[in-house]
Amino acid sequence: MSKYRMPNENSKYYLPQEDYLTAIHYALRYPTLLAETPPADSSCAIRYDKDRVQTSSQYDPTSDLAIRRSNNAHKIKIIEETILEVAPDVSNLAYFLKLGVCYGYTYNQLCGKGLPMGQRQYYEMRRHFYFELIKKI
Q1: How far is the C-alpha of 126 from the C-alpha of 120, rounded, in Å?
Q2: Which of 18, 121, 29, 38 is nearest to 76 (CA)?
């Protein structure tokens, strides 16, 4: 992870190395979480060929799907709320921050897409995002 520079101990957004790397990898999971979240209509139907039982030790694909969908939705919500908290949707900054922290875009790539801020401001915003994200995880 050499492309991410650790904030030093004098920074107002200082995090220990383990927490900082955890926040980076948590945010980078965003596209994977979106892809893994199954669509809402993929639940299984009721099976009438089996006996009706209140509790069963058999595998329940419907509950497994609902649990996975709920967990992924919660993680996605945490990331999206933190992005909007750090970069209010003024000049589309939230969009650029999401590209940078969730999809791994570099500052130069974001400038090519029209990032309306300087390098120091962007990196400060990104550090603030990781600082706030680690508080919510």
Answers
A1: 10
A2: 29
